[in-house]
Amino acid sequence: MSLTWRQLRALLRKDLRIELRTRETIAAMLLFAVVAMLIFQFAVAQRSAEVTLLAGGFAWATIALTAVLGVGRTWVPEREQRVIDGLLVAPVPRLVFLVARTVVLVVYLTAVELVVMPLAVVFFAPDTGLSDLGLVLVSGLVANVGIALVGAFLASMSVFSRARELLLPVLFLPVIVPNVIAAAGAAYAVLGPAPDVADYRGYCLFLGVYAVTFGLVAYAIYDYVLDD
Amino acid sequence: MRAFGQRTAVAGVDLVLPAGHRVGIVGPNGAGKSTVVRMLATLATPDSGTLKLFGHACPRDANRARGSLGYLAHDPLVYLDLTAWQNLELFADLYGVSRGRDAIAAALDRVGLLARALDPVRTFSRGMAQRLGIARLTLHAPRLLVLDEAYAGLDAAGTALLDGVLEALPADGGVVLVTHEIERAIALTDEVMVLRAGRIVETVSTAGLDTAGFLARYRGIAG
Questions:
Q1: How far is the C-alpha of B140 from the C-alpha of B68, rounded, in Å?
Q2: pTM (2 decimals)?
Q3: How many alpha carbons fall within 13 Å on the CB side of residue A81?
Q4: Residues A159 and A121 sit within 8 Å (Cβ to Cβ)
Q5: Per-residue pLDDT tens digits for B107-116
Q6: pLDDT tens digits, residue range B144-156?
Q7: Across the interface, do B81 and A21 touch by the CB < 8 Å criterion?
Q8: What is the pLDDT of residue B101?
Q9: What is the predicted pLDDT for the residue at B29?
Q10: What distance in Å separates the CA atoms of residue B216 and residue B222, rounded to the nearest whole number?
């Protein structure tokens, strides 16, 4: 096993072990997501006849806002427990930190998506078949990669900032807007009144290009983000 | 040179550390000691000047030097929500320590924490956590130890433990020790540098040093 792979595996295992022990991040994200979907259901769905049109939008607005919680928790144990110097002094290529953070965020977001999307179907589009739900989940997984990359990158950028809690959402949400719009578009292309496979594919392609583009940008400059 | 905004933290430090050399850095608060030591640990980059560690130019090739560095500050740099074993397992993997399980067990045994290996660090006292920090420090057999007020918070046993780590270093093992305790720096190093306002204002060899005379001079320098 190469050293880089061993380092990546160790960082992933560390984050998941801490989450399993504390259950701080994922529990808060899931609770927030369920409450947000319930609010949409009671505030809008029961008063609108065409709520099926909005199912994807509600789901992705919820996931985007929930992502702020997950991204905000990134690097928190390192900051609060003053471990960050111990990590940065280790011979770990900086990009490995980004990949590890991204994978962990993808895991969190996927867990949220697995709750939110079925809720969206039950609340707003009850006639949806399982295969259509599967398609929405697949496009969501691609969208999660883009969101997680942006979140991991910006969280690293703001890790040494005193106003981190304010700065991070202000930077994060605008950057993921195109990704969220495309993900909602893909969901609409499947759940809407006139399912359109070509539209669905187009949105998925956009989501893929978004993730790859941001991944390349992060690859080029991430070394300078974490180093002093 | 290194500045933070308008404030110059380090104005001119020339330091050559041959293999096996041990140097203590002392000085009053705000003298720039921690900035110097963070640069040596590759955690900060100089604004101007050059920094080479084991022949590798930093920050460009810092990652090649990091594997040979051991860094301990007044915090143990371990996760409170992981067990002692899990912490060392993490760092063994990050440093690519071979035969990790044996190395972890030996490191925990050395610091007297083998019996608490499976307990979360959150349940440890400050001194125990710092002992775990010492185990982390030595896990990958570094060639240069960079210690920034590492004795802070250690009880007598922990202090003896860290002294033992320095004594047990191989002949080519170097040490940079930043401390407020001048006598400790004199006892543990070959050379003591006094830093003031970001500059080295005096360097003395500790061999045959008139400690009382040096301490009197130091008080004059430190104000």
A1: 8
A2: 0.91
A3: 22
A4: no
A5: 999 999 999 9
A6: 999 999 988 788 8
A7: yes
A8: 92
A9: 84
A10: 10
For residue B120, say if its preceding peptide bond is cis, omega within 30 degrees of 0.
no
B67 contact A CB<8A: yes
For residue B69, give both structure tokens. Answer: 């560095």
Residue type for position B218: Y
Among the listed residues B135, B119, B120, B129, the one whose alpha carbon sits nearest the alpha carbon of residue B152 = B129
Q: Nearest chain A Cα to B80, which residue?
A: A81
Q: What is the DSSP string of chain B?
A: -EEETTEEEESB------TT-EEEEE-STTSSHHHHHHHHTTSS--SSS-EEETTEEETTTHHHHHTTEEEE-SS----TTSBHHHHHHHHHHHHT-SSHHHHHHHHHHHTT-GGGTTSBGGGS-HHHHHHHHHHHHHTT--SEEEEESTTTT--HHHHHHHHHHHHTS-TT-EEEEE-S-HHHHHHH-SEEEEEETTEEEEEEE-TT--HHHHHHHHHHHH-
Q: What is the pLDDT at residue B28?
A: 86
A21 Cβ neighbours under 8 A, 6+ residues apart: B81, B82, B120
- Of A93, A65, A62, A70, nearest to A151 by C-alpha is A70
Please check whether residue A51 is in contact with residue A124, taking contact to mean a CB–CB distance below 8 angstroms.
yes
| Distance (Å) of CA A60 to CA A52, A138, A142, B30, B72 | 14, 14, 13, 50, 45
Across the interface, of A17, A85, A92, the residue whose CB is closest to B94 is A92
Q: Check residues A205 and B222 and name the one with the higher pLDDT.
A: A205
Show the tokens assigned to B43: 């955690």
| Residue A1 DSSP label | -
- The whole-number pLDDT of residue A85 equals 93
Q: What is the pLDDT of residue A228?
A: 66
- The pair of structure tokens assigned to A178 is 């195109």
Nearest CA to A207 among A111, A156, A124, A136? A136
| For chain A, the helix, strand and coil percentages under 3-state DSSP, each to the nearest 5 | 85, 0, 15
Q: Which of B93, B130, B136, B146 to mutate to test the interface with A (most CBs of A within 10 A)?
A: B93
Question: pLDDT, tens digit, for every residue of B49-91?
Answer: 888 888 898 888 899 999 999 999 989 999 999 999 999 999 9
Of the residues B34, B78, B82, the best mutation for testing chain A's interface (the one with the most A CB atoms within 10 Å of its CB) is: B82
Closest CA to B70 of B141, B20, B149, B158: B141
pLDDT given at position B1 = 66
Please state the φ and ψ torsions of residue B97, each to the nearest 5 degrees. -70, 125
If we measure between CA atoms, which residue out of B63, B70, B66 comes closest to residue B133? Answer: B70
**Count of Cβ atoms closer than 10 Å to residue B156 Cβ:** 8
